[in-house]
Specification:
The structure is a single chain. About 50% of the residues lie in helices and about 10% in strands. The longest helix has 20 residues, at about 20-40. The radius of gyration is 37 Å and the shape is elongated. It has 32 helices and twelve strands. The strands form four sheets. The protein has a five-stranded antiparallel sheet with strand order 5-6-7-10-9, with no helix packed on it. Strands 8-11-12 form a three-stranded antiparallel sheet, with no helix packed on it. With about 800 residues, it is α+β, with helices and mostly antiparallel strands. Pfam families: Adaptin_N, Alpha_adaptinC2. This is AP-1 complex subunit gamma. It is a peripheral membrane protein. Its main location: membrane.
C-alpha cells in the first residue's frame, strides 16, 4: 500500500478546493484511505493519519472513528506518538463516552514517567477531559507532582488540581498541604497557576476561605514586587510586568477581602498604589485598573479609595474603545446605589454616552441616567432624556418612556411640570408606553384640580396636531369629556386661552370615532366623552344622534355602550346629570412598584393587614359615579364576562360557570329564581339603590392564600354585601416574586351549582415582577343556602415568553366567609 500523503500536503490540497462540494469530496476520499489504513493495523503511519483526522475534525467533519487509534498512540513508547494521541484524546473524547476510561492506566503510568514532557502531556489531558472517576483514581499522582521541585510540572499539576477539585470537591483537602509553599515560588508560571488553584478552593469552601486569609500579606507583597520591579523582557507586556498574574492576584484578594475587615485593611494601600501607578494608555493597564476597581468595590475599603475607583471608571468613559466604555457604564450601574454622590460627579459624561452610536452603550447609559435622577437634577436630566427619547431607536422608546414616567412621578417639582413632561412623552412615543400609563395620567390630571383648564386645552391642541398616538388620544378624550366646559369657556390662566366652540369639540371627537387610526378602546373613550358632554354642552340633540348611530355598531363593546347611553337619554334621563357628573379625586394605594389607581370617592382609604378595601359608597350620586367609571372609559381592560345563565329564562339559578372543563359537581340543585320577563330585557341601572354596596371587611375574617406556585401568589380577602348578606365579596391579590413580569394574566373561577358567581374586571393583565405591585380582581359569590364554599380556579399567563396554564382547587375558606 502506498504511503499516505503528509498533513501539510492534505492542508494544501483542501485549500485548493473552490466549492464546498469539492472540499467534501476530498475529505471523504482521504477518510476512506485513513479507515483502510486503520483496518490494516498500519503502525508506521498511524500518527500521521490521526493528525490528518484531527485537522478534519477542526474543519467540522466527523472523526469519531479515530478514538481507539488515539488510545493506541497513547500506549506507544514514542513521544511523537504520545503527543498526537493525547491531543486526539482531548479533542475527540470526553467523559460522556466510556472509551475514555480505557486510558486511565496509561495516564497513571505516564504521570510517573521519567520524562517531564510525557508527564506534562498526561497532566494536560487529565486536566482537560478527566471524568470524576479518573480524577478519584489519579488525584494522588497529581498531588505528588504538585510537591515536586520541577516548576514545569508544578504549574501543570496546579491546573490539573483545579480540574480535579471541580469534578470531585471532596478531594480538596488532599491538596491543602501542597499549597503551603506554592506562593514562595519565583517562577511566574507556578505563581499564576497557584493563585488560580487558591481562588478555586476559596470559592468552593468557606473553611478554605478562612484558612487562606492569612496569605493576604504574602499576596500583597507579590503584587507590590510586580508593580515596583523594573523592566523584565520575559514578563513584560506593553510596559507592564506580567499583567496576567496581577489580574489573578487582584481577583483572589477580592475574594479574601469580601466581608473581612482585617484583610480589607491589609490590602487598601496596595490597591491605591495599583490604581495610581498603572499606565492607562494601553489596554493592558486598563484591564488591571478594572480588576482593581472591582476589588475596591467588593471589599470593605475606605471611602477615599472608593471615590478613586469611581473616578477611574469616569476616565474609562472618555476612552475611545467602546468595550472599555461599556464596562465602565456597567460597573457604575452596580455601584450607583452605594456611592451615589461619587457617581453623580460624572453625570455629564454619562449623559454624553446617550449619543453614542453603539446600542449596548446607549442602553447602559440610559439605565444609569435614570439611576442618577434625583430631586436636585430632575429638570436637567429629564431634558436630556426627553431629547434622547425623540431621537432613539424604537427598541429604546418603551423602556425610556417608562423610566421617565417613574422618575417624574417620584421627583416632579410641580404638577404642571409633571403633566407637561408626561404629555411630551405621549406625543413623542405614545405608541410605546406601558398599558398603565393612561390610567396613571388620568389620575394625575384628576387630582390636579387647579390645572384642569390648562390640561384640557393642551390635550385638545395635541389632538388637532396628531391622532396617531393612541394613549395620548385616550387621555385627551377622557379629559375633554370631563372638562369640556372649561375648554369652551376659555378659563385657562396658565397660557393664552383658545377660542373653541362646542361643535368644533364634537367634530374632533366624532372624527376619532370614524378614524382608521383609532383602536376599539380609543373609540370607547371617544363615545363616552361625547356622552359626558351631553351634561356640559347644549348640543344634546347632536349627541343623541351620534349615540343612536353606534347602537348598531359591529363592535360589540361600542354597541353596548351606545345602547346603554341611549337608554340613559330615554328611560333614565332624570338620572343622567348625576351619573355623568365629574369624577371625584382618586387616591393611590402605596405599592413598591408602579402605583395602582384606586377610586375612593374622596374618602380616606383604611387598611387592615395590608389588604386593599373596596370603597364604601354612601350616596346615590357617588354610586352613579362608580357605575360611570365602569361604563366610561378609564378602565382600559375589557371586562371578562363570567356570569352567563345556563337557561335564557332563568335569573341565575343554574351554575354560572364559563370554564367548561372546570365544572364542579355536588350539592342539590337550587330552586330557580323568578324569571325575568323577556319582553323587557333587564338594564344595567335597574335596581339602583342608595344603600352602600359593601361594608368594611367583616371583623374576624382572615385573608387566605389560595395559590402559591412558580413565583405567582394569589391571596383572597373577604367582605360582606350590605343589601344581601348572602353575597360574599372576595378580592383577589395576585403578586409575582420572579424577576420577569407575568403578562396576559387571566384569572377564572368556577363554583358548584348551589352557588352563583360573578367575576368583575381585573385591575390589569400584567403582574409586575419582584412583588412591585399586584393585580386585583373582585369576585361576588351568592350563597343562599349557607353551604361550605368550594372553588376551582384556572390561571393563565405568559412568563419569559412561554404560555403557562394551571388549575387549583380552593377548599379551605374561613367559615366566617360562608356562614
Amino acid at each position: 500500500m502506498p504511503a499516505p500523503i503528509r498533513l501539510r500536503e492534505l492542508i494544501r490540497t483542501i485549500r485548493t478546493a473552490r466549492t464546498q462540494a469539492e472540499e467534501r469530496e476530498m475529505i471523504q476520499k482521504e477518510c476512506a484511505a485513513i479507515r483502510s489504513s486503520f483496518r490494516e493495523e498500519d503502525n508506521t503511519y498511524r500518527c500521521r493519519n490521526v493528525a490528518k483526522l484531527l485537522y478534519m475534525h477542526m474543519l467540522g467533519y466527523p472523526a469519531h472513528f479515530g478514538q481507539l487509534e488515539c488510545l493506541k498512540l497513547i500506549a506507544s513508547q514514542k513521544f511523537t506518538d504520545k503527543r498526537i494521541g493525547y491531543l486526539g484524546a482531548m479533542l475527540l473524547l470526553d467523559e460522556r463516552q466510556d472509551v475514555h476510561l480505557l486510558m486511565t492506566n496509561c495516564i497513571k503510568n505516564d504521570l510517573n514517567h521519567s520524562t517531564q514532557y510525557v508527564q506534562g502531556l498526561a497532566l494536560c489531558t487529565l486536566g482537560c477531559m478527566g471524568s470524576s472517576e479518573m480524577c478519584r483514581d489519579l488525584a494522588g499522582e497529581v498531588e505528588k507532582l504538585l510537591k515536586t521541585s520541577n516548576s514545569y510540572l508544578r504549574k501543570k499539576a496546579a491546573l490539573c488540581a483545579v480540574h480535579v477539585i471541580r469534578k470531585v470537591p471532596e478531594l480538596m483537602e488532599m491538596f491543602l498541604p501542597a499549597t503551603k509553599n506554592l506562593l514562595s515560588e519565583k517562577n511566574h508560571g507556578v505563581l499564576h497557576t497557584s493563585v488560580v488553584l487558591l481562588t478555586e478552593m476559596c470559592e468552593r469552601s468557606p473553611d478554605m476561605l478562612s484558612h487562606f486569609r492569612k496569605l493576604v500579606p504574602q499576596l500583597v507583597r507579590i503584587l507590590k514586587n510586580l508593580i515596583m520591579s523594573g523592566y523584565s523582557p520575559e514578563h513584560d507586556v506593553s510596559g507592564i510586568s506580567d499583567p496576567f498574574l496581577q489580574v489573578r492576584i487582584l481577583r483572589l484578594l477580592r475574594i479574601l477581602g469580601k466581608g473581612d475587615d482585617d484583610s480589607s485593611e491589609a490590602m487598601n494601600d496596595i490597591l491605591a498604589q495599583v490604581a495610581t501607578n498603572t499606565e492607562t494608555s494601553k489596554n493592558v493597564g486598563n484591564a488591571i485598573l478594572y480588576e482593581t476597581v472591582l476589588t475596591i468595590m467588593d471589599i470593605k475599603s475606605e471611602s477615599g479609595l472608593r471615590v478613586l475607583a469611581i473616578n477611574i471608571l469616569g476616565r474609562f468613559l472618555l476612552n475611545n474603545d467602546k468595550n472599555i466604555r461599556y464596562v465602565a457604564l456597567t460597573s457604575l450601574l452596580k455601584t450607583v446605589q452605594t456611592d451615589h454622590n461619587a457617581v453623580q460627579r460624572h453625570r455629564s459624561t454619562i449623559v454624553d454616552c446617550l449619543k453614542d452610536l453603539d446600542v449596548s452603550i446607549k442602553r447602559r447609559a440610559m439605565e444609569l441616567s435614570f439611576a442618577l435622577v434625583n430631586g436636585n437634577n430632575i429638570r436637567g436630566m429629564m431634558k436630556e432624556l426627553l431629547y434622547f427619547l425623540d431621537s432613539c431607536d424604537p427598541e429604546f422608546k418603551a423602556d425610556c418612556a417608562s423610566g421617565i414616567f417613574l422618575a417624574a412621578e417620584k421627583y416632579a417639582p410641580s404638577k404642571r411640570w409633571h403633566i407637561d413632561t408626561i404629555m411630551r412623552v405621549l406625543t413623542t412615543a405614545g405608541s410605546y408606553v406601558r398599558d398603565d400609563s393612561v390610567p396613571n395620567l388620568i389620575q394625575l390630571i384628576t387630582n390636579s384640580v387647579e390645572m384642569h383648564a390648562y390640561t384640557v386645552q393642551r390635550l385638545y391642541k395635541a389632538l388637532l396636531d396628531d391622532i396617531s398616538q393612541q394613549p395620548l388620544v385616550q387621555v385627551a378624550s377622557w379629559c375633554i369629556g370631563e372638562y369640556g366646559d372649561l375648554l369652551v369657556s376659555g378659563q385657562c390662566e396658565e397660557e393664552e386661552p383658545i377660542q373653541v366652540t362646542e361643535d368644533e369639540v364634537l367634530d374632533v371627537l366624532e372624527g376619532l370615532l370614524v378614524s382608521n387610526l383609532s383602536t376599539p378602546v380609543t373609540r370607547g373613550y371617544s363615545l363616552t366623552a361625547i356622552m359626558k358632554l351631553s351634561t356640559r354642552f347644549s348640543s344634546v340633540n347632536r349627541i343623541k344622534k351620534v349615540v343612536s348611530i353606534y347602537g348598531s355598531s359591529i363592535d360589540v363593546e361600542l354597541q353596548q355602550r351606545a345602547v346603554e347611553y341611549n337608554a340613559l337619554f330615554k328611560k333614565y334621563d332624570h338620572m343622567r346629570p348625576a351619573l355623568l357628573e365629574r369624577m371625584p379625586i382618586m387616591e393611590k394605594t402605596a405599592t413598591n412598584g408602579p402605583a395602582e389607581i384606586v377610586q375612593t370617592n374622596g374618602e380616606t382609604e383604611s387598611t387592615i393587614l395590608d389588604t386593599k378595601h373596596l370603597p364604601s359608597i354612601t350616596q346615590p350620586a357617588s354610586q352613579a359615579n362608580d357605575l360611570l367609571d365602569l361604563l366610561g372609559g378609564n378602565d382600559v381592560v375589557p371586562v371578562i364576562q363570567t356570569t352567563v345563565p345556563t337557561k335564557p329564562a332563568s335569573a341565575g339559578g343554574e351554575l354560572l360557570d364559563l370554564l367548561g372543563d372546570l365544572s364542579l359537581t355536588g350539592g342539590p340543585t337550587p330552586t330557580p329564581a323568578p324569571s325575568v320577563p323577556m319582553s323587557q330585557p333587564p338594564f344595567l341601572l335597574d335596581g339602583l339603590t342608595s344603600q352602600p354596596l359593601f361594608n368594611d371587611i367583616a371583623a374576624g375574617i382572615p385573608p387566605m392564600t389560595a395559590y402559591n406556585k412558580n413565583g405567582l401568589k394569589i391571596e383572597f380577602t373577604f367582605e360582606r354585601s350590605n343589601p344581601n348578606p348572602n353575597i360574599a365579596v372576595i378580592t383577589i391579590h395576585a403578586t409575582n416574586s420572579t424577576e420577569v413580569d407575568m403578562t396576559e394574566f387571566v384569572f377564572q373561577a368556577a363554583v358548584p351549582k348551589t352557588f352563583q358567581l360573578q367575576l368583575l374586571s381585573p385591575s390589569s393583565n400584567v403582574v409586575p415582577a419582584l412583588n412591585q405591585g399586584s393585580v386585583t380582581q373582585v369576585i361576588r359569590v351568592l350563597n343562599p343556602q349557607k353551604q361550605q364554599l368550594r372553588m376551582r380556579i384556572k390561571l393563565t399567563y405568559t412568563h419569559k415568553g412561554s404560555p403557562v396554564q394551571d388549575l387549583a382547587e380552593v377548599n379551605n375558606f374561613p367559615p366566617q366567609s360562608w356562614q
